[in-house]
Amino acid sequence: MCIGLDAGGTKTELLARSSSSAEPVRLSGPGANPMRLGLDATVNALTDLIQEARRQQPRGTVGSICAGIAGAGRLDDRERLTRRLRQRLDLPASTPVRIVHDAEIALEATFHDESGVVVIVGTGSVVFARTRDGRTDRTGGWGYLLGDEGSGFALGQQGLRAVADAIDNGPDTVLRAWLADRYGLSSRDRLIHRVYQDDWPLQNVAPLVIEAADAGDDVATRIAEEQTHLLADQVEWLLDRCANVESRIALTGGLIRETHYAQMLQATLCNRLPNWSVVIAQRDPVHGALHFAQRLAA
């Protein structure tokens, strides 16, 4: 059984194929980002999904594993994750296991081994490119404290800042009423408690910001526009460094499922790069992880 995993900040997806079954195994679980959760919690999340896949395919042994993991950009982190995952699953040394950055599986799912650019927008964000001669490079992916422009976290954070401004008699926004209605955050004390003491995932607010922008709220629209332009900056910076890239961009990640935001980002990039193709990726990154796993097993 070849197993591919796509581990992001909000959820992890598994796709596995076995010669003993015509139907693939598809599973999802909680997020598994080592920069936020630590290595052990990340390995636990991956292990739980892989063990469930094993239970669903009891006659299929694990032939190979590839996991694309957000927050696993450093080689030593990937090596530690690989070792611990092997230990937890008690895999023989002959079983190939590969941990890569989640941008690599997104690129593989969209363009296979060909040139192009992917913009991944989920809880975090990163821009990843492969040149025509096979080199890869990226911008972004610095995490929520240093970057993640245009991401769910960034949109949520800016939306909550706008609500705080409105409470302080700043520009009014429908987000204030919606936040009170949907989450019960109707006062300064409740908002501070939820963000600072409950460690609330700020990306939860991102769909609300996008919905408000789609409804014509000025404040939410400004937030969404600013974030798409920050992402477009990342793309242009990468292309300044990587000139030999096929003129095509694919948008992928959980936030791209929010149609209004995807259209805003697509329009911004088309305006900045008028001679480039900018499309929504048709295949989820987990398919790229499975492709890598199948190659490892070949």
Helices and strands in order:
Elements: E1 2-7, E2 11-17, E3 25-30, H1 34-37, H2 39-56, E4 64-69, H3 75-89, E5 97-101, H4 102-111, E6 116-121, E7 125-130, E8 136-140, H5 152-167, H6 174-183, H7 188-197, H8 206-214, H9 218-241, E9 248-252, H10 259-272, E10 277-280, H11 285-297
Parallel strand pairs: 1-4, 4-5, 6-9, 9-10
Antiparallel strand pairs: 1-2, 2-3, 6-7, 7-8
Helix pairs in contact: 2-3, 4-11, 5-8, 5-9, 8-9, 9-10
Written description of the protein model:
There is one protein chain. The chain is an alpha/beta fold and 298 residues long. It has a domain at 2-106 and 285-297: ATPase, nucleotide binding domain (Nucleotidyltransferase, domain 5, 2-Layer Sandwich), CATH 3.30.420.40. The chain is built from 11 helices and 10 strands. Helix 5 runs antiparallel to helix 9, helix 8 (206-214) crosses helix 9 (218-241) and helix 9 (218-241) packs across helix 10. The radius of gyration is 20 Å and the shape is globular. The model has no long low-confidence stretch (mean pLDDT 90).
Total beta-strand segments: 10
Principal-axis shape equals globular
- Quickly give the structural class: alpha/beta
H and E string: EEEHHEHEHEEEHHHHHEHEH
Mean pLDDT: 90
CATH architecture of the domain at 2-106 and 285-297: 2-Layer Sandwich
CATH topology of the domain at 2-106 and 285-297: Nucleotidyltransferase, domain 5
Would you summarize the structure shown here?
It contains eleven helices and ten strands. It is an alpha/beta fold and about 300 residues long.
